[in-house]
Amino acid sequence: MSRIIAIGLAGLVLAACKPVAEPAPPAEPAAAAAPAPAAQPAIDAAWAAEQERYLAVNVEPSDPVEAVMWRGVRCDFLGSEFGGDNSEQDRAINARMDELRCGDELLAEGRELRATRAGDPAAVARLDALLARW
Fold first, then answer.
1. How far is residue 6's CA from residue 3's CA, in Å, rounded to a whole number?
2. What's the pLDDT tens digit per position in 93-113?
3. Cβ of 130: how many Cβ atoms within 10 Å?
C-alpha cells in the first residue's frame, strides 16, 4: 500500500514540475515548391471530391485554380482509359491529352499556381491534392 502511495506522489511531483525552457532550434528554410506533407487519406478524399465535382463538367472553368483542377481530373480520367495498343481510341486519347497539356505541363502550372496563391489556404489545399495525385 505504501508503494502505491509513493508512486502516486512521485507521479504528482513529476506532473507538477515544468521542463526547463530550451531555446528553439533555428528554422530551416523550406523549399518554395514543396507542398506540406498531408495524410494520404485526406488527399485521397480531396481528390475524390474534385473528381465528383468536375467529371460532369464539359467546359473548362475560367478561374485558374478551377481550370487546373478540371484539367487534372480530365487527364486522370483519360489516363485510365488508355489501352496502350496504339488503337484509334488510344490515338484520340493522346490527342486530347495533348490538348489538355497533361503531364509535366500540368504539374508545372499547378506548382506555379500554388506559389502564386500561397495566401489562399483553400486553393493551396486543392492544388496539393492535384500535385500529390500526379
1. 5
2. 999 999 999 989 999 999 999
3. 28
